[in-house]
Structure formats: C-alpha cells, structure tokens
TrEMBL record:
Belongs to the phosphoglycerate mutase family. BPG-dependent PGAM subfamily. It is an enzyme of class 5 (isomerase). Keywords: Gluconeogenesis, Glycolysis, Isomerase. This is 2,3-bisphosphoglycerate-dependent phosphoglycerate mutase. It catalyses: (2R)-2-phosphoglycerate = (2R)-3-phosphoglycerate. It comes from the Bacteria. The active site is at residues 10, 88. Its EC number is 5.4.2.11. Catalyzes the interconversion of 2-phosphoglycerate and 3-phosphoglycerate. The gene is gpmA. Pathway: Carbohydrate degradation; glycolysis; pyruvate from D-glyceraldehyde 3-phosphate: step 3/5.
Amino acid sequence: MTYTLILLRHGNSDWNQKNLFTGWVDVRLSDQGVDEANRAGELLAASGLKPEILYTSLLTRAIQTANLALEVADRLWIPVKRTWRLNERHYGALQGLDKAETLEKYGQEKFMEWRRSFDVPPPVLDDDAEYSQVHDERYIGIDGEIPRTESLALVIDRMLPYWESDITVDLKAGKTVLVTAHGNSLRALIKHLDGISDADISELNVPTGIPLVYELDENFVPIKPAYYLDPEAAAAGAAAVANQGKK
Ligand SMILES: O=C(O)[C@@H](CO)OP(=O)(O)O
C-alpha cells in the first residue's frame, strides 16, 4: 500500500511581498499569491492527483491558497480539518519587522540563526505588542499554550503529535491528503519525513504555491524522493526564499 501526501505552501502573501517577518500574523495573499494558488490548482488537476481531505493551519493565507487551488481542481467539496498545529512558526519579537533592516541591524550570523537555526528561537513577543496573537479568538481553547516565539524544534514538538494523531490516520485509510501550510511548518514536516539532520535542515527552503508530492510506504517513509509538480519554478522559488533579507 502506498500513501499519497501533497504539501502546499501558501502563495506569496502581502508580507512576503513587503519582506516582513510574518509568523502568526494573519496577512492575506498578494495578487501574486492568488495567481500562484490558482496555478497550484492547475498543476494538481493536470497531475491527476485527487486530494480527498484537506488539512490547513488557522491562518487565512493557507486557507485562501487551499480554497483557490481546490476550486480550480474542482475539489472544493472535500472535507477540511484546520489546526493551529500547522500554523507558521511563531516568529516572536521579529513579527512585523523588515527582514532587510533586521539583517542590517543584527548581522548575517544572528539573522540566519533566527531564521534557519534548528533550536534558537527569536526573542519573545510581549502579550501587549501590536502583532501578538494571545487575544485572537481563533486560539481560545486550543489544546496547548499559545507560543510567544518558536524555534523550528518547537514547531516540530507541536506539529508532530497532530501528524501522528490525525494526518497519518487519514493516510492509513487510503485517502490522498493535501496539507496547505507554511514555509516553516512544512520544513518541520519535511525534516521528519525525509530524516533531515538538525544541521542540514537550515539549507531547506520551501517555495510558495507549488505542490510537493510524497509517496509513502505503510511506515510513512518516502518510497522515492518527493517531487514538486513544477520543479523549475520550485527551484527558483526556493532560491528566492533563501535570499530574503538581501536587498
Ligand atoms: O516570515 C515568515 O513567517 C517566514 C515565512 O514567510 O519567513 P522565513 O522564510 O524568513 O522563515
């Protein structure tokens, strides 16, 4: 039995376009992001893959992306499960800051440590800060504590239990699963699936809006390398993410 899992990072957002650290701030897709999401739907339709259940984060940009893509693929009707556990990494006090200015102010080493180290979280975001989510109604009553900052390691800690309790159950039932989430929550899942080391994961960047397809064995181990439905655009997109911050 082979299980099919499709990962999709949301399309370019207003804050991706402005080059701002985003994290849990609920920004929407930019016009470019809307185009990318529609294109993701075209790629899905052309691939013949048919998602049977959708998982999304609680963030609008991921939900918009999934809805646009599924509409184009004529599968807007499939069941949906949303969870904060697929949210983007909480970027702490960096949320809302300009990436280029942050790079200039703190230097390349600190900047990259905050962006891509495995277990160094950015400084904590105060609860009364403009871009805090502690009073956001969507997080009231979640099964866990709202983060004030997160490293990739902490994202794995909150994402993996959900992967095991819910997503793998649908895969095991034979469903083709679409997960629409974020650069860093998907890096966390890809790290787990591909067994990437804590050191090497810093090199991995996920492009916006291009479906990534996994075929997994019954132990959820890839039977071959995952592939992007548009590999050329994915390579260019990943390079663009890696270069964020540089002016
Ligand atoms: O700002 C963010 O939340 C993320 C994703 O856009 O950025 P980065 O790629 O720098 O981790």
